[in-house]
C-alpha cells in the first residue's frame, strides 16, 4: 500500500513548479493502487488540463463520473475545463451541480465554485449574476481572496460590461422565455427562493445545451420569428 499523504505532497510540489509530467507519473501510481480513487483521478485531470491536453482531461473526468456522478470536485473541475474551452453555458451547469453536492463542511470548496460561477457569468456579460455569485462566495467563506478581488474591482468601477456574442443574446431570450413559462405553470410572478431559481436555471441550461447548442449554425441563419418559434417548441420538465 502506497503512502498516499507522502505522494500527494510530492505531486503538489511538482504541480506548483510546473512539472506536470512528473506529477502525472506519481498520480498514476496512486490510481494503479486504487483505480476508484476519485481525488487521484481529479488530480490527474488537473495535471492534463494544466498541460493543455483538454481531451485527456475530459476523458479522465468522465471516467470519474462513472464511479460517482455526484462527486462535487469532479463536477467543479469539469466546469473549469468547459470554462477554459469557452463553453460557458456547460460550465455554469457543472458549477451548479458541484455547489448542490458539496457538504456543509466543505465551505471553502463551495465558495470556490461560486467564484468560478461568477467568472463564467461575467464572461457571458451577465454582470448582476456575477456579482451575486461573488457575494455568495464571500458569505460562505469570508477568506475567499478571489471573490474579494472581484468585488473590490466592482467597487472601484473596474468591472465593465463585455461585448456579448449574438448566441448569448439568444440564450438570454431563451432563458427569459422559459422562466416566464415556468412561473405561469406555477401561477406566480416571481421565485420563492434563490434555490428555486437555480434549479430552474439549471434545467434551462441543460435544455439549451441538449437542443439549441447542437444547431448553433442553423440558429444563426434563422429569422427572429423562426428562433422564437423554435424556442417555444422546446419543452422543459421542471
TrEMBL record:
Pfam families: ANAPC3, TPR_1. InterPro entries: TPR-like_helical_dom_sf, TPR_rpt, Ycf3/AcsC/BcsC/TPR_MFPF. Coiled coil: none annotated. The keyword DNA repair does not apply. Keywords: Repeat, TPR repeat. TPR repeats lie at residues 38-71, 72-105, 111-144. This is Tetratricopeptide repeat-containing protein.
Amino acid at each position: 500500500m502506497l503512502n498516499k499523504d507522502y505522494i500527494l505532497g510530492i505531486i503538489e510540489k511538482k504541480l506548483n513548479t510546473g512539472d506536470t509530467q512528473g506529477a502525472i507519473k506519481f498520480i498514476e501510481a496512486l490510481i494503479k493502487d486504487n483505480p476508484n480513487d476519485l481525488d487521484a483521478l481529479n488530480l490527474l485531470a488537473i495535471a492534463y488540463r494544466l498541460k493543455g491536453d483538454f481531451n485527456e482531461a475530459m476523458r479522465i473526468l468522465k471516467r470519474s463520473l462513472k464511479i460517482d456522478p455526484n462527486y462535487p470536485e469532479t463536477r467543479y473541475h469539469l466546469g473549469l475545463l468547459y470554462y477554459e474551452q469557452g463553453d460557458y453555458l456547460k460550465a455554469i451547469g457543472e458549477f451548479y451541480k458541484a455547489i448542490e453536492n458539496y457538504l456543509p463542511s466543505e465551505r471553502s470548496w463551495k465558495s470556490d465554485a461560486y467564484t468560478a460561477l461568477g467568472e463564467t457569468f461575467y464572461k457571458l456579460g451577465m454582470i448582476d449574476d456575477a456579482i451575486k455569485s461573488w457575494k455568495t462566495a464571500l458569505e460562505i467563506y469570508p477568506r475567499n481572496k478571489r471573490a474579494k478581488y472581484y468585488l473590490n474591482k466592482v467597487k472601484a468601477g473596474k468591472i465593465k460590461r463585455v461585448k456579448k456574442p449574438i448566441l448569448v443574446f439568444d440564450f438570454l431570450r431563451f432563458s427569459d422565455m422559459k422562466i416566464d413559462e415556468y412561473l405561469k405553470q406555477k401561477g406566480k410572478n416571481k421565485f420563492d427562493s434563490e434555490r428555486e431559481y437555480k434549479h430552474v436555471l439549471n434545467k434551462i441550461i441543460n435544455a439549451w445545451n441538449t437542443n439549441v447548442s447542437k444547431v448553433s449554425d442553423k440558429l444563426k441563419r434563422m429569422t427572429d420569428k423562426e428562433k422564437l418559434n423554435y424556442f417555444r417548441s422546446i419543452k422543459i420538465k421542471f
